[in-house]
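Predict structure. Chain length: 295.
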Amino acid sequence: MTSPHVLARSAPRRRPIAFATLAALLFIVPAASGCSRNSSSEAPASASDPVIARVNGVDITQGDLALAEEDMGADMPATSPEAKRENLISYLADIIMVTQAADKKNLGDDPDFKRRLAFLRNKLLMGYELQREAKTALTDEALHQTYDEAVRSMAGQEEVRARHILVDDENEAKSVLEQLKSGADFAALAKEKSKDPGAAEGGDLGYFTKDQMVPEFADVAFKMYPGQLSNPVKTQFGWHVIKVEDRRTKQPPEFDKVKDQLEAYLARKAQTDFITKLRQSAKVERLDKAAEQKN
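Prediction complete.
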């Protein structure tokens, strides 16, 4: 069953909504670059990957430039396209020159280097495999099926739109309630009194479903009618005075508006399922644990 939270919006002061998967165990594997190439192993450049520079006999191609840009990422200074291109070519040239100097010293034979190289190879290969699993899962049929399941699970789900004023103690909340009953404007009083980040918006929380709020808050809000004020409500955040503005049946967002979320969900699920399956069939021996038990 697809989680309805695939289509959920975030909201202030709400309980975290997350996919119930092992996706948090996965880590992003950056694309590798800076791998040295020497003239003896140099593959000829193709017409689709033209040579743009040559350093000590080693070609730099347009494809190398793309890898270098991906590798540098956010470290790239904000410059014009021409300056960026020159910086990337200089970066690649430095890699080639330093690598050639290291090769002359046989640093590639160093055991620590070989160990790190093997680790990076495995890490990169894992990234490629997980990307392949994600790509395979992202079919139009799977996206629409996941969307339809999420929409069905949301059918008839009620939403409430409410404002609230959050204060530190019960007496202050009672004082706020008395001011509201005496005719004070809720939005203005929220801006003045509330310690919630949404105070600037007059305490407006927008529309939310019951499971998007902490239980103490939701249980009260979903029993109220539009225009009603609550008695002070205590939660982990403090004391709230709630005003319900509207109630409605939740309307699912259009497919195109949540397509990116659906793709992210299916990609993570495919990767998680793949790793879970491998774990179930793998033989993992913890030799350190065995040694600890003997001692």
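Summary: Residues 3-43 have pLDDT under 50 and may be disordered.
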